[in-house]
Amino acid sequence: MGIHHLFQLDYLLRLIAASACGASIGYERKNRMKEAGVRTHFIVAIGSALMMIVSKYGFQDQIGWDNMSLDPSRVAAQVVSGVGFLGAGIIFMQRETIKGLTTAAGIWATAGIGLAVGSGLYFVGIAATLLVIFGQVLLHGKFKWLSSLSSPKTEVLTLQILNEPGSAQHLREIFQRHSAAILSLKIKDSKKTAGTLDVKAVIRVAGGFDTPQLVCRLQDDPQVAAVEY
Prior knowledge:
Alpha-Beta Plaits, two-stranded antiparallel ribbon, alpha+beta
């Protein structure tokens, strides 16, 4: 086997390593039911590695040509910019809350990992993959000290409460006990069910706040007829 074929095998190994790193990050995202999963991260990683390999080694036959200047970093820079647009497509608004930021950042990091492995920095690429996965798993853990470091988030709850004296104040007290700051509370007579009020509550909570637990607490309350999240 000639030296040229050995180089080709090395490039193939880089593609395989990059795809494994991307798929690993995508698997963590898939398990959390996020917008981009294994296939997306797999393709981003292997595509970035391929572009890096082409950028570094695809123009070797042109070295020495007159009036020819090669800059392998140019393709890598364009990959970073291009993946930024891909990540932007994952971010969207849902119920007055921004969704997909973490997944978009993961796509961007996966492209960087692909570039690193494609350039031959195996250790750096694999280490970065492990750090990304470790950070995703750890920061999604229900640790109080991590919740205080997370950015606040906005949640929207739609409820039906009994039209009784003190019902609105009772609802405020529930939010207060769960450390949820009320940004907006719209109450009006329900047109669906007699004797109830329609409530739209916009609350701000800590980044690690367990909203489903609050919803369960509201569902168990005798003054709450229905709640949607």
